[in-house]
Write a structure and sequence with these properties.
77% helix; 14 helices; 392 residues; two-stranded antiparallel ribbon; 2 domains; disordered N terminus
């Protein structure tokens, strides 16, 4: 069924309305990132960090739901434009309500806007269900399951508001967990309607690029003030870290990911959730490196864990790489040793920021070199394959 269905899918391009939609998420990324600058006892306030994690995952989930809908059923028509504009409008309310200390008013505003976004998506799926229930029953089944997921999340978020009024208990994050568990549990149903993987990878790439944009803006603080030898060292090394991280992802996307795969795309987007999350924490960690009020040990651990998370999930994209570039066990073992060595060096020299930043640059460009070799190996095999093909 998956293969047969894929044959009738036309190539989908990223529309301008999708790019505009992504810009609201740049704003939301910035709002969520601001939470982890609330320092308490030398590090991030635990409550602020928890809200940052949950808020980031909620925003990425909203983006995911919309992206899958447009990928499978979007036509760049009036309905799609109205849906996206409603979501954008409501996301402003969620952004304003995003704060380290949730007042009652902010909590209500956030949850009401979140519930309305879910209802908006539910209505759009229902309209598609009415259209496809007769002519395309396999698509109608997938749409029905998506509606069940959205309805479940909507109920949880909606109930959380009066429950908070009566008891002060916050259960809204359970909607996020419900959506993730339901999606994983119904993976076979998602196989009924494969995605346009080329479009999906491009959408994920653009979200990653916007997240890198936030990182580029954040490291501008390193260039403030006078010019000193120490300042130039950290400015250069931080810039190199950002460039190296981006180039590693760029190589994976441009040369190694098989964008012609037949897949439901769920795993690919799940990996990108953690990639985007890790990039947000790396951004904060790089900002912390120059802030004296943040204790050196926790911020070193924070940077180390964030970088390891980024490369682990970048390597997990190997599931979607072209057959001849998929990592083998020896390759994975080498990467594991490299990451372990990096963690040890960072902990041993945790009180020496010069060594820490140098070790980070070494890791980033060591990983980049590995991806460059993989790219060269793939291009070499591709040329050999083409040379063996009979001439017309």
């Amino acid at each position: 069924m998956l293969k047969d269905t894929a044959e009738i899918i036309k190539e989908k391009k990223v529309e301008y309305i999708e790019l505009i939609y992504d810009l609201i998420f740049v704003y939301m990324i910035g709002k969520n990132s601001s939470l982890i600058h609330h320092i308490e006892d030398g590090f991030i306030a635990p409550r602020a960090f928890l809200i940052f994690v949950l808020g980031t995952l909620v925003i990425i989930q909203i983006w995911n739901i919309t992206t899958f809908y447009i990928n499978r059923y979007g036509s760049n028509g009036v309905q799609d434009h109205i849906m996206i504009m409603i979501n954008m409008f409501l996301l402003y309310f969620m952004g304003d309500a995003t704060r380290a200390e949730w007042t009652e008013g902010a909590y209500y505003k956030y949850d009401i806007a979140w519930a309305l976004i879910l209802i908006n998506m539910l209505v759009n799926y229902w309209l598609k269900y009415r259209k496809y229930s007769v002519n395309k029953p396999w698509e109608a089944i997938q749409i029905l399951y998506s509606m069940v997921m959205l309805a479940g999340e909507t109920v949880i978020v909606s109930v959380s508001i009066p429950l908070y009024v009566k008891t002060g208990v916050i259960i809204a994050p359970a909607a996020l967990a419900f959506g993730i568990i339901f999606t994983l549990a119904t993976n076979k149903v998602n196989n009924l309607v494969p995605v346009d993987f080329g479009h999906l990878t491009e959408r994920a790439m653009l979200f990653v690029v916007f997240t890198f944009g936030e990182m580029i803006v954040a490291i501008a603080v390193y260039f403030e003030g006078g010019i000193t030898a120490s300042g130039i060292y950290f400015e250069l090394m931080t810039f190199l870290i950002v460039v190296g991280l981006f180039q590693s992802y760029e190589l994976c996307y441009d040369y190694l990911i098989d964008r012609e795969l037949i897949t439901n795309g769920v795993g690919y987007m799940m990996i990108h959730i953690f990639l985007i999350f890790s990039l947000s924490t790396i951004t904060a960690a790089l900002e912390f490196m120059r802030e004296s009020e943040v204790d050196i040990f926790p911020k070193t651990v924070f940077l180390t864990v964030s970088l390891i998370m980024y490369f682990v999930f970048l390597l997990l994209l190997g599931i979607y790489m072209k057959n001849r570039t998929k990592p083998n066990l020896v390759f994975i073992a080498k990467i594991a040793v490299m990451l372990a060595a990096f963690a040890v060096i960072m902990l041993i020299f945790r009180n020496n920021m010069y060594v820490n930043v140098a070790a980070t640059v070494a890791l980033v460009y060591g990983m980049l070199a590995i991806f460059i070799r993989a790219k060269k190996a793939f291009l070499k095999l591709e040329r050999q394959t083409l040379s063996c093909m009979p001439k017309a």
